[in-house]
Amino acid sequence: MTSAAAVATTRPAPAPARLPSLTGLRWIAALLVFGFHAGTMRIIAEPDYKAVVDALFTLGLSGVQFFFILSGFVLVWSARAGDSRRTFWRRRVAKIYPNHLVLWGAALLVAWWFADPVVPAAALENVLLLQAWDPRPGWFYSINTVSWSLSCEFFFYLCLPLALPLLRRARPKLLWVLIVALPLLILALWPAQQLVPEVSRWWFTQIFPPVRSLEFWLGAAAAELMRRGLWRGPGLTAASVIFLGTWVAAAEWIRAELWTTLLAVAYLLVITAAADADVRGKRSPWRSRPLVWLGEVSFAFYLVHVLVMTSVLRLSGDWGTGFEGWRGPAAVLGFLLVNLILAGLLHRFVETPMMRRLAPRRRARPPIPEQRTAGTQVTGDEAHHTDGVGTRAEAGGADQAGSRSSYVDSR
């Protein structure tokens, strides 16, 4: 812990800036997950075509890793001291639960249509977002398969308000220790899984919420360092080059237990560099209007894409075999378009209105007296500071409220 005086010199407490580049990057992560599932579902029967998809998206499952790191980053970055735990939890429920309920119901309808057996206890676990805690094979992937990640997110949301005061008071050295130690802990999980029964090892390393929270806390520690102006990392161009090099090397030569760690670091560098570019007003390819819209619907896209693809493949009789010739790549593009349309509708008619109705409004920040602390001039909420992060004005606007909070939203 550190003293109040030290906090004043190291953390000027800037107002959360809009981070549209992170919204755009959310779409890239969602696209990686989509491509991975398109390959593993064998939508494309032609070996040469399928090889291209596999080469491009073989590590696409790590897109969920990106989401978890991003979630920790933006929730710490945007957290307000005046918000109660109840307000935070209510806002998070309002954000993700309506979409989850719609897809949960849709998945049950699909199961009824195909006369698939549904275990009531598994359905109950799924609707309550508890399934990630259940190691039984098939249970954590029950009903809408991808909702296991929401089960993890709910655990993160429960923990963050309890841990945030500790993060705010932590010494910078401790935060840097977390930045180094958390990727090493991710690496250590692979030998540690030998202590778990073999049937539960995938669940332990890929699903179990406390394990997946390591990525969340990695993003959270980086956000706290950036809030204080203490983050030191490459710029967006260099971070992107590092990520691409890591991706290619991991796909070609590196074993899974290593690439999960390396990609966690690479994702963190891209997230922090993109956020810094937004706050400083630097150029970023990820904040274009189309990419921001795609990022806004990426949560809905993620929730619908597997259910849509499996349902169509079963109806067409191509489940497990794929489409021959050019019909395979055409089907993948068709799925991409259909899922985007459905995601846009879900975002427009469920996610947005329910967020407005259910989420508490953000209270206006009260003005504070002008004061000076160690080279930092703070005047009310619109602080200008010399912490290397930039100002709210430079970032291009105020916080987003209600349904327009996606610029500082984890999903």
UniProtKB/TrEMBL annotation:
Sequence ranges of Polar residues compositional bias:
402-411
List this protein's GO terms for biological process. lipopolysaccharide biosynthetic process
Q: Which InterPro entries match?
A: Acyl_transf_3_dom, Acyltransferase_3
GO MF term set: acyltransferase activity, transferring groups other than amino-acyl groups
Claim: Nucleus is one of the keywords in the record: no
The protein's UniProt keywords, in alphabetical order, are: Acyltransferase, Membrane, Transferase, Transmembrane, Transmembrane helix
Question: Where does the sequence pass through the membrane?
Answer: 27-45, 57-77, 97-115, 146-167, 174-191, 260-279, 291-310, 330-350
The domain of life is: Bacteria
Q: Where is the signal peptide?
A: none
**Residue span, Acyltransferase domain:** 21-347
Instruction: State the residue spans of region: Disordered.
Output: 360-411
Q: Mind naming one GO cellular-component term on file for this protein? A: membrane
Under what name is this protein listed? Acyltransferase
